[in-house]
């Protein structure tokens, strides 16, 4: 509080000023709890136009407490906060596995239309034919792109999709007298959500080795099937292209093997951007999958969400999907079908992340059939191009054009040669921030790796600049490691002490 | 329009650098039988002009709160939203940023989430809160899973009166786990402490109770949670899980006031558009002792290399990307932008503003209820205090009232029949929600609608 | 061009990087002419759905030429540009005479409604009753606030209002046989638009002295009337409160004098923020006036415009106003009245800056009657408060509470004591930028002055911080003038060489 | 809600610091008889909730291009606007910045205006352009004033076929000046070089000609400007002032191609909503030699103290705040945000995109015209080439067609009667504009509308 109303020296030093921050401000920004304007109101309400009804003391509570602010201060606060973020709109954001592609503004236009943003989830189907038609179209298009039979739009994100699909899988097994099938394989480079989702579904996640070349280790998979017993196998969760940034050469062998023992193949669709129109999960053996529409279909990441995690399954699994399903009758009328007696139930209230599905529809219809294929091609070309520009200096275990081993839409590098100079991977990442480039994904799927995914929407010159910057950082490391060790220097705060934060956790404001 | 921009000449240059002659060589690893050898069976590309036109024409097929005075609730409420929020949230720096893993490049979102967490704890009277889950019902399921994990017990007590969707989501969540769900029955639409006492025993992991409940009624959290805690004597230490409405928290006793261990709720009333049910905002607050067991992201205050205050993701070791199968939850992508909306809403409204919303909703709902009670053949279905939503027993099927209302420019409420409320429903029951946005004129029109519907 | 596709060292230096700029970037940002992505398209169009008609060679021309960009690059370009601006949303902006108050977002909501933003100016009145009702309300409210009889919403900005009013004035004189009246007085501290508008109307602007205390010099005015001859006097353009930041004590004497010789009093309403609900131009003798709705009524300045300059006049001048007028008939139907035979004609196409008037309506209705008065009171209080906090160190010729001489909504300071240290006024202004505060108005109405207008929407703590910062800058000047002489240091560019720009003008991109 | 936030206690502190006891002391200087001693007779304050409601209900009373297919033009055209523009323009850093006098704090707007100026010169084929004037007609008036100033001559030649509003604005502008306006008469709807030749003499200051003109017809700028320049022989050096449509410039000969000295126009087609006629965008481009005589702000490229490129306002000595009565114009506040919209539009569309808009508008307008010509009793009113707007002579009063169209979901065009077109109008004449937004289906509906209207 005192920082707000009393002059302090910090307040008067241009480099630590408190209230009015230019966009070059590198200091802490006061929280809302430090900005009290007593009695201020940013929003007022009309006078009550009905008689009052007393609130019984037995149920009444007190008013919560945080500082009031005038509307101008509210606007400034969030304007200043926004200025302290990297974003796709401001920066190249080559986060592997996150598909940080351009988020088209027509998507936002669509979702904001009053006829879509102001409809209540419990209105009658007949009053929402426009909304339902968009969902139905989306469902059908997602089925087609998957090469599978029936989509469910309920899951709110990829992990939620995994969870929903595993629940569906288990319901199917229960219903078909195979309830004992509870072992789910996942390659050792699987995303953390895969085993975590298994755990939530009471399924044991068993890790399968990955070969040096980055593919599923078939021998290990066979060994594990034998170990657990074929009739215990529920299935495998596999990402393809996988998180090593390559199409799994053995994907058909894997799915055949799992199918042979009666298991199901689940495709983690995080990397569908490399598949669009070139292949479908259905064509490489998947029985179920999720999409991350916030990756593949351009819906914005919004500082962490919302996403959308629709799943698509083969016919025989469809009866177990959550209700309701979006259907269309013979007269072309759209309706929500709650009549799914074998359904696992629900995984959320209402129908879906509607606003996200509207954006997804808009994007898919914008690209169109061949446009989607071109997305995949350009995404893959862009990744390989950067890899080619860097490979002389940044070791890439899974990329070797001379042997015909190419990247999919992303690639992994483990810059051992640079790390040997005594720097940490973090140093490279933080130094990239100084060049206005967001760090790639780090330490996953391999310790000390950078996973780089440029996406298809970045122009060639951005890819080239990124490669040049990484070369320059390599130069810096070779000439004077302290440059990268002290990075970042141009962000609003210096290197953050995450460990300290975890030691003395302060998760809410304490004045 | 797929937003790529690389020309064919540029592609050729790039291919040459890679050392291949065409793009398909890069896809060579895909087995022949896995290749899609036809075009996708979806329509061709559309220009933005066509998209605008198509979207507007689809949107025009819907009626909703933009065309009718909305008295529908049932988990999604038509509250006032300050105009600045849409404009602020569409700033690219918020809209198109990723999860704030790189703290130095994400102080904006981190600080906003920290403030969000702090506001949610103050609103609910709880000690800590996470930075969002998907939506209310799945947040409730997460609370139950945490209770199982924390207590190692198998008995899940659920008040009969939580919203049927929440119940379904909890049922699905525990369907593959070795636990048992028990319904705590309601009397006159609410659960009594005695009913809880009867079922809580040495196997009890938690008790879940919503207030307002699925009839809009205010439940006795305090009494019920006390009754629950008596089972400690029986050798269990169950968690009291409250499902709250954030608007109500500004007027009524909070989960914290009533001794809740965990408080979950749907954050949609905090400045989030109805949008046919999503994206919404799962709120999750708890006592501090559950910090390391909680699902979802947590932002903490920390320092940078110069010792200056900043913010960073905290306790990531709970999360799936570090802990895998042992994580407290599988959640990864959450509802960040909606949490931002909510914190903008809470900051702009201020506590007094949220209190205004709650009070006006209370008074308007009670005015509506009292006017409806005056109508012949209409009555409040359940006795007991309610907040801003109440069930009316109509002399005709509620559908009839709803349909008549539409012709008058009203969405009169949610018909809670067996279809959506199962055993709890009734063909003639209509749930009416009244927010601060409704005027006396609209309420009077609703009353007329009910009166007329009877005679149709 | 070369900066884009070819690596350069500048490109690789974090402090001069070219394409991907973090918000801390302090270097030049490439122009659109330097960002070519050959063949790229940010927007595409549907296939033509009608037969083509050949374009005759005699009329056909070539396609204009500038680089194409993908949508992502477009978004980044304008995002980066925006990050290089100060704004009310980000900064305290105490520009005297500009009334940089908070611009409420509900105003933007209003103007953006399709039912207001997508109506054609030539539609029939009956189809636009909502739009016309807003304009009619606005007209009536502006008349009431002016205390004058009839408003005209046509002028697009304050200067345009002056021009329109002077044209109206001259038409009135012509019509009443006094066409010879062409001398218009304006105090020497008048805004530049006043004499410039006179010139455009063929009226001679004659400067009237201002007293040491900042008021109109009555003796000089009398002298000038005699000099030019009473029957030559068209009127006076006066600003009240005037640009010295004070209510003119002699305003009634001035208007009486002008009226006595048959002239008209024009009120430059730029400073109406200090008058709202406390006084009206009608009450202090004005016959005509303009508003700057982008000042008084909170419509955004938008990097320089658009504004709105509605004028209000007394009854006897109304027949000469431009057509059309917005009227309401007995049945409550709104209509545009073109039937004004004595009208000066038109000063623009169509009716008015409609979107701006919608915002103006929204603001006035938001404030309400007493709320507007409170605006004036708070604006005046804020200015006096800052003046009081600074007066010991910053000389203020027109502010002396001990003598009952207060500021209106702004005040003027001439920091002679600091300038005597060898610094320039500019140095103080530029140093303020380093503290995240926009510079006040400079060198007007007096050479070497700062004119400070905080507006009513700034919270008290912002006013206090501003005063503290100015004291700190005074300290800096006294201890080490080079600090301010080298300012600004925290803006994207260093001190700009404006003179050089004028010497070798480059007004368009040359590649 | 007036957006102030100072509490009474704070006010008291502030008053004490100033040394007075109440706010009215600060207003003491206002003479008693000048004080307003009553409340303003305007309604009381409204909350944002009420304002939203009221605005929506007023907006709902209007039909327009959002409800009807718009074939209206006459100076304002219903073109496609990319969705991102509204979102980008609402960023506070653009919306709430002032005129970029402080260059160091305004590089964003300065660079954008510089790019705008550069694009406008490339679009029009001119050498320099300013950073905006109020709108098209007053820009034309400014051009005439500059011509008077530059040439010191008194003869203002104006083509009969410029839009009547432009003519009125020019008339008003010169009404108090010692100059004379002469109309250059049209033949078949366009002005011929001969007609110009006849009137241009040693007193001629300028000649103003619009293409497309007020009938949508393309004028012979080239021939007419050449004819004008022949008056040089007679001892004058008059300015050729062209009024252009920016969309047409991407397809047809530009003012620069045709030898214009000054080119002015309405920038609304460049991404600016119809908005009942404003705020729009006055475009002003000229030959370089008029740099020091031009009205309006100019942004130039310059350097900072480190020699790095930046942008600053240039040639401010032309402007009123420096030059007062000797300024080139009185303009101060301009249409900055609209110039920003226009440059965003031009950048996003790219030259090819603007060309697409122009071509599609051309083809669709010509398709419409040819279909209408096939109708019995309808004909094009004027011969000659047109761009995207043309006048039709109807067998019935044009009002009748317009009214029939409304019932079909169309705004069929602008009826150009004596009311708005004076001598140039005709009761049966309808101006129809067809932009790229109109579909063949809509055009065919328009044709049906005309056909049916005849029989009503
Ligand atoms: C491979 C993979 N699987 C699953 C997920 C989880 O998806 P979500 O974050 O949408 O829950 C991710 C997200 O990063 C991922 O990369
Ligand atoms: C006193 C005064 N008069 C006139 C004007 C001109 O108004 P506008 O910029 O709206 O044309 C201004 C603007 O700054 C002003 O301060």
Question: In a nutshell, what does this entry contain?
Answer:
The complex is a heterotetramer, with two copies of chain A (511 residues) and two copies of chain B (456 residues). Chain A has 511 residues and is α/β, with parallel strands linked by helices. Chain A contains 17 helices and twelve strands.
**Helix/strand order of chain B:** HHEHHHEHEHEHEHEHEEEEHHEEHEEHEH
Task: Flag low-confidence runs of chain B.
Answer: none
Number of helices of chain A: 17
**Order of strands in the sheet with the most strands of chain A?**
1-7-6-5-4-2-3
- Tally of separate helices of chain B: 15
Average pLDDT value of chain B? 96
**Strand percentage of chain B, roughly?**
5-15%
The percent range for strand residues of chain A is 5-15%
Low-confidence runs of chain A = 1-11, 13-26
Shape call of chain B: globular
Structural class of chain B: alpha/beta
Give the fraction of residues assigned to helices of chain A. Answer: 25-40%
Name the assembly state.
heterotetramer
What would you call the shape of chain A? globular
Instruction: Please state the average pLDDT score of chain A.
Output: 93
Q: How many strand elements of chain A?
A: 12
Bound molecules: pyridoxal-5'-phosphate
Task: Describe this entry's structure for a reader.
Chain A has 17 helices and 12 strands. Chain A starts with a helix and ends in an 8-residue tail after the last helix. By secondary structure, chain A is α/β, with parallel strands linked by helices. In chain A, strands 1-7-6-5-4-2-3 form a 7-stranded mixed β-sheet, with helices on both faces. In chain A, helix 6 runs parallel beside helix 12 and helix 7 packs across helix 8. By secondary structure, chain B is an alpha/beta fold. In chain B, 37% of the residues lie in helices and 14% in strands. Chain B has a 7-stranded mixed β-sheet, with helices on both faces. In chain B, strands 11-12-15-14 form a 4-stranded antiparallel β-sheet, covered by helices on one side. In chain B, strands 1-13 form a two-stranded parallel sheet. In chain B, helix 5 runs parallel beside helix 12 and helix 8 packs parallel to helix 9. The N and C termini of chain B lie far apart (52 Å). The mean pLDDT of chain B is 96. Chains in contact: A-B, A-C, A-D, B-C, B-D, C-D. At the A-B interface, helix 3, helix 4, helix 5, helix 6 and helix 7 of A face helix 1, helix 2, helix 3, helix 4 and helix 5 of B. The site of one pyridoxal-5'-phosphate has 14 residues of chain C, from helix 7.
